[in-house]
Amino acid sequence: QVQLVESGGGLVQAGGSLRLSCTASGRTADIYRLGWFRQAPGRKREFVAAISWNDDDDYKYYVNSVQGRSAISKDNAKNTVTLQMNSLKPEDTAVYYCGVDISRGTYYAADAYTFWGQGTQVTVSS
Question: What average pLDDT is seen over the chain?
Fold first, then answer.
């Protein structure tokens, strides 16, 4: 299995930035893709961004609402994936989760991810 720990959340004013980090441990060789999802109260878990892990092509994906103001990156040596979020909006407020896909599922589907971290809270004030 793979264990994931997120960090970097917090309270920020609209227009500000946060850098979320996810560190993986355990059987990291099994990782195909890491993704960031978010969930606000009363809402389904929503895809935010994803990145291939060991694929030859460094595929990156973003949901439209964060495209252009967010950047996902990885450091395989440190088993870490980072989501840099700029120009934050109140609509970005949610608990952000890091997930691991080990079976090459659909990148934007939450049920494609087998392991999850505990989440980190992002709150954007207006």
Answer: 96
